[in-house]
Specification:
This protein has about 450 residues and is of the alpha/beta class. Helices cover about 30% and strands about 25% of the residues. It folds into 3 domains: about 5-55; about 80-150, no CATH class; about 160-435, Metallo-dependent phosphatases (Purple Acid Phosphatase, chain A, domain 2, 4-Layer Sandwich), CATH 3.60.21. Strands 8-7-6-5-14-15 form a 6-stranded mixed sheet, covered by helices on one side. The protein is elongated.
């Protein structure tokens, strides 16, 4: 094997991870050898010649990794699966001493994806065997035993956020094809809520009596945006209040559970659900901002608390240079919006008997300036109007989503799939309520 070919093969070999070093017939063919075994034998002979000549004497750990990756150790690996979903793995690994305390390195050397597994226990024993192929005649190992468990919550690290935005680069997030409208300072606000969307929920006729999945959810969402455009044709607004959250995603963890761990019927992995939610919301904001300025409010809820926080931070970053988009990233369970003399409280749910005391205490200063007062709730998947508490009106929103096996088993009443959109005047309060059916 000549110098150039050896350097080529060695470069491929040394840059690969130990558990990814596989001799293939394709590699052999590319190098001019009839089979992978013939290339492997030629490479080993040339490498041994260089070892004997002390050409690799300064890098004994690399030699060890090469020999180990060829399977020369007779130590038998073992995997033990436990009822709680955890796994115990035991194997001989090649690792530098400084990396023995690095959980991600140990996970990778045992073949676990660091994005999906957490290291819970590790024990590493020094292991030394004789080997004539190494410069000092010895081969250094570590007998490594680790226990791992599946990650429940995503790891919000820089790598994840970087990949998230890279995924968005390849998607068309341009506004839907509609006629642009102009912003006008006329004391009117358009309130557009998407409540209990449950993106990722899977429902079938045989199990729930309705069909719902990612494709239906996306269609319903875009139908609402297009219908709104038609319904408000000719009207102008100071601002559009885009109210999201309210269980926009069906689950919040890698194990398809709510934030607090309740299992959900989700049709896709959490990562795909998260990506699609962010994509849809950016499309929606880009579409609405063609009409007027847009204020985005996240109503914190029980299904997707941490996911929506991350999505709101991502949206805020995405629109950071757009002066016509304002994003509320706070994690308050109740939000208040004040326009003219109108005060609106938003919550996913609350004890109705406490509605008046909450808004008068939490929004005390705004209460004193307003003459129209509203609570707008979600959670029960149907439109409801409660008895007024003094001047306070309390209403609950319907949804464009399907319903789950759980809600069907409880016998909850499911109304038509729709959302309600409100035209609000700063002096007189709610002027118009539009029902948008899908």
């Amino acid at each position: 094997m000549d110098q150039n070919l050896f350097n080529k093969v060695y470069s491929i070999w040394s840059n690969a991870k130990p558990n990814q070093r596989i001799w293939t017939n394709q590699l052999a063919e590319d190098c001019g050898y009839p089979s992978s075994e013939s290339l492997r034998s030629a490479f080993r002979r040339e490498r041994q010649r260089r070892i004997d000549g002390k050409e690799f004497s300064s890098k004994p750990e690399k030699i060890f990794e090469e020999i180990k990756s060829e399977g020369k150790s007779s130590y038998r690996e073992s995997f033990e699966y436990h009822k709680d979903g955890s796994i115990t793995s035991e194997r001989i690994i090649a690792i530098e001493r400084d990396n023995l305390k690095n959980p991600n390195t140990l996970l990778e050397l045992h073949g676990f994806d660091v994005d999906l597994w957490d290291l819970t226990h590790a024990k590493n024993n020094y292991w030394e065997m004789g080997n004539r192929h190494t410069p000092n005649g010895k081969e250094v190992h570590y007998q490594s035993k680790i226990s791992v468990k599946p990650k429940i919550k995503p790891d919000w690290n820089n790598k994840f956020i970087h990949n998230l935005f890279n995924n968005l680069k390849n998607k068309d997030l341009s506004p839907l094809q509609i006629i642009p409208k102009n912003f006008k300072k006329n004391n009117k606000v358009l309130l557009l809520p998407i409540a209990d969307f449950h993106l990722g929920l899977i429902a079938t006729m045989s199990s729930t009596g309705n069909e719902y999945n990612m494709e239906i959810a996306e269609k319903n969402y875009k139908d609402v945006l297009l219908q709104i455009k038609e319904r408000i044709d000719g009207q102008e607004f100071e601002e559009i209040l885009f109210v999201i959250g309210n269980d926009f995603l069906n689950s919040d963890t890698l194990n398809s559970t709510t934030t607090n761990g309740t299992p959900q019927d989700s049709v896709v992995f959490w990562h795909d659900m998260f990506d699609k939610a962010l994509e849809l919301l950016i499309v929606g904001i880009n579409t609405l901002v063609e009409i007027s300025k847009v204020r985005v409010i996240n109503v914190v809820s029980n299904h997707d608390n941490q996911s929506m926080y991350a999505i709101m931070k991502a949206i805020d970053y995405y629109f950071k240079d757009n002066k016509n988009v304002i994003v509320d990233t706070s994690q308050l369970f109740r939000k208040y919006y004040f326009h003219g003399k109108v005060l609106i409280g938003f919550a996913h749910d609350l004890d109705i008997k406490n509605a008046l005391s909450l808004i008068t205490s939490e929004a005390k200063e705004l209460w004193g300036k307003a003459n129209k007062f509203y609570w707008i709730l979600a959670h029960l998947h149907q439109q409801m109007q409660y008895s007024k508490q003094g001047n306070l009106e309390i209403m609950r929103l319907p949804t464009i989503s399907g319903w789950s096996r759980w809600s069907a088993s409880k016998g909850y009443v499911h109304s038509d799939q729709r959302t309600q959109v409100f035209v609000i005047d700063g002096e007189h309060g709610i002027l118009d309520v539009m029902n948008i059916f899908v």
